[in-house]
């Protein structure tokens, strides 16, 4: 069988996900990325306690905006560091909702919903890699 996506040819994208790991939205997001496609390799470099190092090391910061009401100060800090390190900021709207806080809208490189293909595409496009065609 021909391997259309040989592992050695695929880049691994490092993501910092601005959300505590024990939250439902975080777990759903991780599950979706894990099943996204064999052509998208990624690594979670989220370190909530030493987030400056994680953000410095990442390729993209992903903000799951459903946390905004509970942890706006934490998200602001993550965004502040992301901007200081010139990292793209992908904001994922709360599941089933269209509204994103205005402050997040202003800082976002892209705002997307929970469609897995669009999540992958937004990450790749924010890094100037255009491999997928999905209307956002």
TrEMBL record:
Top-level taxonomic group: Archaea
SUPFAM superfamilies linked to this entry: Hypothetical protein MTH538
Protein name: Thoeris protein ThsB TIR-like domain-containing protein
């Amino acid at each position: 069988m021909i391997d259309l996506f040989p592992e050695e040819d695929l880049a691994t994208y490092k993501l910092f996900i601005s959300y505590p790991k024990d939250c439902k939205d975080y777990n759903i997001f991780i599950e979706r990325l894990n099943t996204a496609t064999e052509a998208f390799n990624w690594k979670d470099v989220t370190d909530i306690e030493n987030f400056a190092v994680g953000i410095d090391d990442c390729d993209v910061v992903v903000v799951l905006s459903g946390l905004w009401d509970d942890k706006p100060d934490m998200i602001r800090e993550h965004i502040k560091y992301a901007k200081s390190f010139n990292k793209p900021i992908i904001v994922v709207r709360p599941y089933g909702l269209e509204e994103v806080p205005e402050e997040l809208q202003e800082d976002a490189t892209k705002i997307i919903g929970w469609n897995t293909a669009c999540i992958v595409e937004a990450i790749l496009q924010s890094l100037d890699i255009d491999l997928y065609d999905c209307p956002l």
